[in-house]
Amino acid sequence: MLPQYINIHTHHARPGDALEIQNVLSDFDKKIAVPCSVGLHPWYLDAATIETEMQHLKQASVDGNVYAIGECGLDKVTETDWALQVQAFREQVVIANELHKPLIIHCVRAYEEVLAMLKELQVAVPVIFHGFNKGLELAARITDLGYYLSFGQHLLKQESHAANTLRMMSSGQFFLETDSSETGIAAIYEKAAALRQIPLDTLILQLQKRFKAVFRYE
Ligand SMILES: [Zn+2]
User: Measured in angstroms, how far is the CA atom of residue 184 from the centroid of ligand 1?
Assistant: First the structure.
């Protein structure tokens, strides 16, 4: 049975009763013992090591504890070489497709490029844009393509794009996360339920159902 809270993306292990997908972004050759996602983050790519890292990532990805590939994606603010980012993202989309595991996407000012690549690579697995903090129009474009959004700490800020988008979006294609923040997932759920104007219990059930479908969780 699934716990009440599902944290789709976190960088901190927190003791508690939530199902947390821990983000692993290096040392893929070490043992993987908890539910996690594995991905080469665009911030930390290194041309000298990428081939070995990708090989380790590929080997690690088959583990049953690996729920998703990512976070991976494109970032126009980071210093990392663009061509290297594109190469790393491309390879990880291919891995996700091969293993039928969802993708957790990191995207900063590169939505057009990411969407174009997903199309070009004929992504055939669920895609989740994590840490979403953009407007309703972009949100609708993404969910209309069948992809998902994941919202985190930005929801707690007054009048953030994230809060407004979650309040207004007609699609239910979203998840919740804590990412690198210290906030607990329960606080994010409470805020999300308030924004959606639904009881917390209803939101918990919706997200459990969605998680089971997207992650093929039994
Ligand atoms: Zn993250």
Answer: 15
Q: How far is the CA of 155 from the centre of ligand 1 (A)?
A: 16
Name the pTM for this structure.
Answer: 0.97
Q: What is the pLDDT of residue 91?
A: 98
CA-closest candidate to residue 40, choices 20, 63, 16, 56 = 56
Task: Provide the sign of the torsion angle of the four alpha carbons 12, 139, 217, 123, taken in this order.
Answer: negative
Distance CA 43, CA 40 (A): 9
Spatial neighbors of 103 by CB under 8 A, at least 6 apart, are 68, 69, 70, 72, 92, 93, 96, 123, 125, 126, 127, 128
CA of 50 to the centre of ligand 1 (A): 19
State the pLDDT confidence band at 133, using cuts at 50, 70 and 90: very high
Going along the chain from its start, the domains and CATH numbers come out as 6-215 (3.20.20.140)
For residue 31, how far is its CA from the centre of ligand 1 (angstroms)?
20
Contact (CB, 8 A) for 55 and 69: no
Q: Tell me how far the alpha carbon of residue 104 lies from the centroid of ligand 1, in angstroms.
A: 9
pLDDT tens digits, residue range 71-83? 999 999 999 999 9
Question: In this structure, are strands 19-24 and 36-38 parallel, antiparallel, or unpaired?
Answer: parallel
pLDDT higher than 90, residue 33: no
CA of 198 to the centre of ligand 1 (A): 27
Q: Output the pLDDT for position 178.
A: 97
pLDDT of residue 38: 97
Secondary structure of residue 34 in the 3-state scheme: coil
